[in-house]
TrEMBL record:
Coiled coil: none annotated. It comes from the Eukaryota. It is a multi-pass membrane protein. It is found in: Membrane. One of its GO terms (cellular component) is membrane. Residues 10-119 form the Major facilitator superfamily associated domain. This is Major facilitator superfamily associated domain-containing protein. The chain crosses the membrane at residues 55-75, 95-120. InterPro entries: MFS_assoc_dom (IPR024989), MFS_MFSD6 (IPR051717). Keywords: Membrane, Transmembrane, Transmembrane helix.
Amino acid sequence: MHLPCFSVRPLEDKPNDFGKQRCWTSIGWGSVTMLSGWLVDYFSYDKVQKDYTPISYLILSFMILNLFVASNIPVVEFKLSQNTFQNVFKLFGKLHVISFFVWIQLSLGVYSSMTMSYLFW
């Protein structure tokens, strides 16, 4: 949830360019997905089962790159509220926040857990 904050802050006076950032994020995601699939197929060419080892190295390299990039992002500290729980309860008093929270719990929680824990015997 912090990603939009970190990605909007560098735009400063051009918040309308956030759509361009999202577009390039999608292009990058799609490119890495195709690269990952190609790596798996290339290294599993003559094997009976797929070899996912290149994906592990790809993830490790992106994690190292992410650590380097994230460590160079300037962090601005904000003044903490004295009544955090009151602010949270006030936030959950709004219908659109409650409906979004319930939808996220259902879609990401229940449905994802069913999909991830269902074993094809």
